[in-house]
Amino acid sequence: MLVRDYMTHDLVTVEPESRLSDALKTMRTHNIHRLPVIEDNLLIGIVSEKDLLYALPSADRPISWVEASAQAAALPVRQIMQQDLVTVGPDCPVELAAATMADHKIGALPVVSPPESRTLVGIITETDI
């Protein structure tokens, strides 16, 4: 069993200059928990719901929650996306992909082809497996 047999092919992505509020809206609209970040047709990062939560203001900051929330929502995805990505190729055994997710404590792997490139062809998640 290969990753290509289980991965999602029809991807929803975001650009690095997209606002965090738009990324969150896209996640909610499509009922997904992470978005690959694409620039010049190449994968440059990934942003997750958890990343968005960490970008929200904390209660100990001196500005108001409303002001801080507005500032955070206007930030570009580029400022909070994860850039140190673990990826797999479509011909990777699905068991190896599952083990990789477990080893790195992540819920999804971008699928790139060829494997040494950043050309995104899919994504495989814990749910897919």
Features of the shown structure:
129 residues, alpha+beta, CBS-domain, two-stranded antiparallel ribbon, CBS domain, Diverse_CBS-Domain, CBS_dom, CBS domain-containing protein
Description:
InterPro entries: CBS_dom, CBS_dom_sf, Diverse_CBS-Domain. It comes from Candidatus Cryosericum odellii. Keywords: CBS domain. This is CBS domain-containing protein. Residues 7-63, 81-129 form the CBS domain. The strands form two sheets. Strands 1-2 form a two-stranded antiparallel sheet. A two-stranded antiparallel ribbon has the order 3-4. It contains four helices and four strands; from the N terminus they run H-E-E-H-H-H-E-E. Helix content is 30%, strand content 19%. The termini are close together. The protein has one domain (3-125): CBS-domain. It has helices at 20-30, 49-55, 65-74, 94-104, and strands spanning 34-39, 42-48, 108-112, 120-125. With 129 residues, the chain is of the alpha+beta class.
